[in-house]
């Protein structure tokens, strides 16, 4: 195994040269983007390969192509350079006195609830910068990169303090262009496309089972990652969607969509704000937690 020393670590310039060369599969195009000579770019990449003791490019008369190792390292390099850019921009934008709170939240919950809940926070606390990352998995949080998370579950996560935001009540909705009026009986679901959730593949089956109704095709229909996409699918007439009611209050009020059947699923799980228990007394964390907590009654 190669001995790792401080000299082994590649320079930022060599990473930039590699990333640009890999993106264009051309040292010449990379040099134009980086405002360097072609030979300088080629030399930086060669030095990088030497320090890694790995060939990143196959060089042929037809041009460059990434080796398997090069393909893997390209993804890592792009992540590194992206994080460096974000860190520099944060420092330039907020200065040395600013503190950053890393937040993770499901895209639909972010757009439909969190954005409104955080309205005015920046004016009151200009030295706390909120870095909000949307994540599809709303049941777990990466404690390595997240300080405050908004999760769906039973409220119990290891080493985390959780504060309940609200329960979830799911209803069946569709565009009035697709369904002219609410159904008179459960059999009216037959013949309609059921919009599916990738995160909750058994949602429709459980919805019908709770009413002792047999639908032979509860898993058939277009499948989406987020409620946001399912809402849009319902609005555009793609089918009937099963959506948490609090996410579609505006659409129900404006009649963009209608509730097609009166039954609502009261799920045992709910939405929570969570943060590491060890960070409970960290000022920036407690400030955000207190702000969100004060907004819960408005959305309950």
Automatic annotation (TrEMBL):
Keyword DNA-binding: yes
Family: Belongs to the LysR transcriptional regulatory family.
SUPFAM superfamilies assigned to the protein according to its UniProt record, in alphabetical order: Periplasmic binding protein-like II (SSF53850), Winged helix' DNA-binding domain (SSF46785)
Keyword Transport included in the entry's annotation: no
PROSITE patterns associated with the record: HTH_LYSR
InterPro entries: LysR-type_TF_proteobact-type (IPR058163), LysR_HTH_N (IPR000847), LysR_subst-bd (IPR005119), WH-like_DNA-bd_sf (IPR036388), WH_DNA-bd_sf (IPR036390)
Gene Ontology annotations of biological process type: DNA-templated transcription
Occurrences of domain HTH lysR-type (ranges): 15-67
Assigned keywords, A-Z: DNA-binding, Transcription, Transcription regulation
Organism encoding this protein: Acinetobacter faecalis
Gene3D superfamilies: Periplasmic binding protein-like II (3.40.190.10), Winged helix-like DNA-binding domain superfamily/Winged helix DNA-binding domain (1.10.10.10)
Molecular functions (GO terms): DNA-binding transcription factor activity; sequence-specific DNA binding
Protein name stated in the entry: LysR family transcriptional regulator
Highest rank taxon of the organism: Bacteria
């Amino acid at each position: 195994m190669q001995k790792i020393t401080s000299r082994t670590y590649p320079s930022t310039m060599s990473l930039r040269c590699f990333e640009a060369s890999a993106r264009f599969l051309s040292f010449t195009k990379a040099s134009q983007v980086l405002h360097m000579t072609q030979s300088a770019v080629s030399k930086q990449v060669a030095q990088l390969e030497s320090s890694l003791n790995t060939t990143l490019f196959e060089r042929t008369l037809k041009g460059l192509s990434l080796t398997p190792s090069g393909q893997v390292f390209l993804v890592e390099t792009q992540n590194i350079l992206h994080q460096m850019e974000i860190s520099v921009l944060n420092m330039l934008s907020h200065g040395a006195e600013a503190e950053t709170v890393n937040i993770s939240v499901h895209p639909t919950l972010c757009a439909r609830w969190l954005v409104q809940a955080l309205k005015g926070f920046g004016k009151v606390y200009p030295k706390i910068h909120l870095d909000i990352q949307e994540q599809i998995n709303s049941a777990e949080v990466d404690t390595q990169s997240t300080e405050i998370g908004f999760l769906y579950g039973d409220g119990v996560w290891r080493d985390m303090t959780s504060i309940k935001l609200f329960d979830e009540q799911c209803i069946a909705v569709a565009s009035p262009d697709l369904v002219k009026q609410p159904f008179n009986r459960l059999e009216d679901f037959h013949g309609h496309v059921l919009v599916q959730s990738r995160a909750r593949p058994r949602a429709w089956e459980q919805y019908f089972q709770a009413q002792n109704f047999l639908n032979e095709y509860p898993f058939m229909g277009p499948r989406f990652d987020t409620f946001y996409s399912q809402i849009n699918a319902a609005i555009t007439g793609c089918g009937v969607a099963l959506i948490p009611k609090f996410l579609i209050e505006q659409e129900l009020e404006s009649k963009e969509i209608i509730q097609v059947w009166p039954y609502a699923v009261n799920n045992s799980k709910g939405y929570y704000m969570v943060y590491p228990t060890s960070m409970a007394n960290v000022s920036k964390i407690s400030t955000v937690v207190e702000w969100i907590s004060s907004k819960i009654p408005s959305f309950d």
